[in-house]
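User: I'm putting together notes for a lab meeting next week and I want to include a structural view of one of the chains we've been expressing. I don't have a solved structure, so I'd like a prediction I can at least talk through. The sequence is below, exactly as it appears in our construct file.
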Amino acid sequence: MTALAQLFRHPLKSHGREELQAVTLTAGQAMPHDRLWAVAHDHSKADGSEWARCVNFSIGTKAPKLAAINAVLGADGETLTLTHPERPDLTFRPDSESARLIEWVQPLVPQDRALPDRILRLSGRGFTDTDFPSVSLCNMASHRAVSEKAGVPLSNLRWRGNIWFDTGNAWDEFDWIGKDVAIGGALLHVRAPIRRCLHTAANPETGERDVDTLGILNTWDHQDFGVYAEVIQSGPIAIGDSVEVR
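Assistant: Thanks for the context. Below is the predicted structure for the 246-residue chain, given as structure tokens.
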């Protein structure tokens, strides 16, 4: 049986991940509180009224040090604590204390690019990397294949996935596209592979680019890792639940 191995959410897009034990998925929505907020840069056209593409936001592709941020969302769902090896811990309310985050993150971003300017919120669907409210599914077997080609142990945090499992065979998940996957009490429809960006080259412990992940993926004639899915039936999921393709 393939089982759910890890769960993550990323409350503030590209600014930290948080590991979970269980969550309830809702049809037509992203994972709760995943990419609920995003940091718009000073050239962004986004205003928070609707979904916007990644180019509108401060992300790890342009600022690799962001990869080393960890996040913890408070029980109130409104308070966020961020940690980074080069910065003091920060606890703030993204909806009302945007300036505190901007000041905290400035030393972590290149100063010759568009700079962090404000935090936007998009409830329900979040600022996912897709134009639909997606949940990402990732296979530990595929991660091991990449790590083996890299020749060094790699953290799976590089991929910023939501739901992790292990089929035992690399790239099985690509065969799931167009199919439904039952996890716990929820049902998801797998829609597309996830084409990867330079963010994955950064070490999630240091924020330094140290592995050519895109070059490694190219040895399989693609730059994809994981798949995007849409929740089509609401329900709870938890570590250890079965992952079943239908």
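A couple of points you could mention at the meeting. The mean pLDDT is 97. The chain has two domains: 4-9+18-29+130-245, 37-121.

User: Perfect, that's what I needed.
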